[in-house]
Description:
The chain is an all-alpha fold. Helix content is 77%, strand content 0%. The protein is built from 15 helices and no strands. The chain is globular, with a radius of gyration of 24 Å.
Amino acid sequence: MFSLRFFILRKVIQAVVVIVLVTLATQLLSSLIPGSPGQSILGEGAGKEAIDRFNQEYGFDKPFWTRYWDWITGALHGDLGQSVQSRQPVADVLLAHLPVTLELAVVSIALSLLIAIPVAVLCATYEGGWLDRLVTAFSSGLLAIPGFVACVFLVAFFSVQAGVFPIYGWVPLTEDPWQNVVHAALPVAVLSIASCPLFLRVLRADLVTTLREDFVLAARARGLPNSYIMFRHVLRPASASLFTLAGLVFGFLMGGSIIVETYFSLPGIGQAVGIAVQANDLPIVQGVVALVAVVYVVVNTLVDTGYRLLDPQSGRQR
Length: 318
């Protein structure tokens, strides 16, 4: 119990350190802008008085450490600043866009795991067989497909030709569950095309390695069925890399789905940061970066802690 508490405490300290470093880096963005943030955001046509007033309003005229302290203390109370373009609180903007990205990430991860785990088990069970070779070749091909190419292909086939799914738009789950599924189908498919083959190949490799361990050979010598050995003794210890990878992919989908959200005109975090970058809306960019960092750290801390609870021996090896 003491080792578990120490493990959790160490993970929490590491998470806090990472979040502090990332938030420091986001605040440095304003210091790296040539001239002043006000001049860059307002444009060359703005007068000196307007620029000075803007810098004072958003705190860009303060020293870096003062600016960072004001931002971090405000963030702890839910205040991430104010958007330059819409004049709305950054926290409200993120909360308005977060449900779309969160739904896409969760559904994509769940769908990828539901497909990858049983297929990887079959491939590892019949290693070197025709199914294993076919799946390996097919997954390699899917990994080579960029996200924007998958978007174009799926839209051309399922929207333009078949007319099954809409090309763009979004319907919240609370308004119409069925239309939500219809509008989310293609974006989820695009994101799953990238993550599912990755999960499959990692889990298959770990399963094959674990199946060659001595305890598996001993279990087979006792006459235990292969299915029992796989699901009772092999799958859990072979899933460590998969759980860690799923956490990393989830964090990536939370912040890296800008291509998919922009292509399908989805009001998610990716679209919000894309618009903010084009409009030089620095507070929104800083808020998104901080949010993604927190999601990354929290998810991976939960994954590591959860696996430590499932397999206490793993924590002694890390």
